[in-house]
Amino acid sequence: MIGLPLMRVLGINAIYHDPSAALVIDGEVVAAAEEERFSRRKHGKRPVPFSAWELPELSMRWCLAQAGMQPEDLHAVAYSWDPALAKNAEDLGLDDPWDYLRTTYAERFPGFLATSLPGIDPSIVRYVPHHVAHAASAALASPFDESSVLVLDGRGERASHLAGRYTGGRLDVLATQELPNSLGLLYESLTEHLGFLRSSDEYKVMALASYGTPAFLDELRPLVYATGDGGFVAEPLDWDRWAPRRVDDGTWGGSHADLACSVQARLEEVLVELARWLHDRTGDRVLTLAGGVALNCVANSRIWRDSGFEEVWVQPAAGDAGTSLGAAMQLAAELGDAPRPMPDAALGRAWDDEALAQWLRAAAVPFTTPRDHAGEVADVLAADGVVAWFDGRSEFGPRALGHRSLLAHPGHAENLERLNDVKGREQFRPVAPMVLLDHAEEIFSDGPLPSPYMLFVHQVAPEWRDRIPAAVHVDGTARIQTVDPVQLPRLGAAIEAFRDRTGLPVVINTSLNTAGRPMVDDPRDALELFGSAPVDLLVLGPHLVRRADLFRGPSQ
User: Which H or E run includes 410?
Assistant: First the structure.
């Protein structure tokens, strides 16, 4: 295409769960999306053993369309797994009879890509090591020119951890940890033992941990520990010695919560030791984090407090979805570009105001487009209504950050149970407060501010706990998102209007989806959720749909 910038790099993650695609043009992140938002299969899961291998056909085609490109316009394709580095499961000490397929799939990926994107030259495919892709997604996408970087996840080609330093766009690897030692796999194994879905529900274990005591922490310390050289020991454990395997029958607590709490506490201790070791080696002011373990916001907060780094920045799509972005940025840097920081996490699909109105008209749904949009949304929230919020580009990563959210009043304790019922999920799960940036410091402490990506926990000030009880977890913390009205004008205005009506500069937020389904991504998804869940108001950009108006016919 005439006039396109020189460097156009498509990044792909297809080797693990959370298949995704990302596009970097001339060093700038143009688009990034997870395949689940298009396919409606959460985490890209298919029946075992094929759950881990799915080419993100829909998301990569959308990325190209977003830039007005054709496959033949690409300069390079970065794949976030290097088969040349892989070892078989038996040699790695892992019990995975399907593991060899990862390497086979990766080796055949150029042919798969050529079939899915006719016109592309398969010879432009380059392999980026899995943990290097994670590291680039953190360091190169962050707003910092140089940083230490820590990657921890279940596994890569042969390791589960990378510690290093990025400067001038170049990675210096300082330590890795070979498998089978893996903090990520250890946490995944615990997740399965506690009756949750492995490689999916680890965040539930983190939430459950707050209901227990670290009763088994002393027993875990000799089994899971940092080795003092940037590595660690974390081999598979027999969980039955501490708690029987839990059947997901709706009950929780007791020894299961104590085991979750003990493992969470030990994870935090080991991560702090690894981060301190890295800080001693580099002396850097900034630490960047990625890998699935970096979605553990409780551990991130411990690292922020105790590692010695002044600032900690976590990739919002820290899991495997983010490796498509990191692979593209890493390859762009190797090809001579100077990658620029990602602007924010809103890198997915969007519809303009008229397109949203057309969706509503086609569905024969009555709606209004009020001048005082913020005021009318705030009125519903202040009257204790539940609001489904759909605005702008969808988020890249697992957290709802003001684009695809369910919102409610934080001042009524029962709204925690209410939102969990709307979503059909466990009642021990917390929801997250969105707070106006200018008010964050008076309400939340002991965590980094601003905190726009909901990746840390903060202590809730004692005088605020009774004012916003639905936002406070059982341990007195909250996983907050600070909202800057300049960056999120429509959402910021709605929270400001809610503050004017209630005195509370906070609303509670959870992702716009129901249990087992991916986050809402397009208007059809939003209308389906609104039609099936007890939600009082649907916000589609500037347009409002009230449940009370659904039976009076279309108004526009």
Answer: none
Q: Does the predicted TM-score (pTM) go above 0.85? A: yes
Is residue 3 one of the residues assigned to a domain?
A: no
Report the distance separating Cα 426 and Cα 408, nearest Å: 18
Residues of the domain holding 357: 353-549
pLDDT at 126: 98
pLDDT in tens, 516-550: 789 999 999 999 999 989 999 999 999 999 998 88
Dihedral in degrees, nearest 10, Cα atoms 283, 284, 289, 294: 50
187 and 236, same structural domain?
Answer: yes
Asked whether residue 539 is domain-assigned, the answer is yes
> 80, 322 in Cβ contact below 8 A?
no
Q: Work out the pLDDT band at 551, boundaries 50, 70, 90.
A: low
Averaged confidence pLDDT in the chain: 94
Q: Assign 460 to helix, strand or coil.
A: strand
Q: CB atoms < 10 A from the CB of 378, how many?
A: 23
pLDDT tens per residue across span 154-186? 999 999 999 999 998 899 999 999 999 999 999
State how far the Cα of 351 lies from the Cα of 416, in Å rounded to an integer: 31
- Check: CB of residue 105 under 8 Å from CB of residue 15: yes
State phi, psi for 233 to the nearest 5 degrees: -115, 125
Q: Is residue 344 part of a domain?
A: no
Per-residue H/E/C for 187-236: HHHHHHHCCCCCCCCHHHHHHHHCCCCCCCHHHHCCCEEECCCCCEEECC
Q: What is the CATH number of the domain that holds 160?
A: 3.30.420.40
The whole-angstrom separation of Cα 174 and Cα 148 is 10
Total domains, the chain: 3
Phi, psi torsion values for 192, nearest 5 degrees: -65, -40
Exposure class string for 466-489: b at 16+ Cβ within 10 A, else e: ebbbbbbbeeebbbbbbbebebbe
For residue 441, which phi and psi values (nearest 5 degrees)? -65, -30
Instruction: Please name the residues in contact with 127: beta carbons below 8 A apart, sequence gap of 6 or more.
Output: 78, 79, 81, 82, 83, 84, 106
Q: Quick one: 477 and 366 in the same domain?
A: yes
Whole-angstrom distance, CA of residue 506 vs CA of residue 417: 18
In Å, what is the CA distance from 352 to each residue of 309, 316, 484, 492, 542? 41, 25, 22, 19, 10
Those residues whose C-beta lies under 8 Å from the C-beta of residue 359, and which sit 6 or more positions away, are 351, 523, 524, 527, 540
State the pLDDT at residue 550. 80
Are 130 and 152 contained in the same domain?
A: no
pLDDT of residue 460 exceeding 90: yes
Lookup: tokens for 509? 């937020």
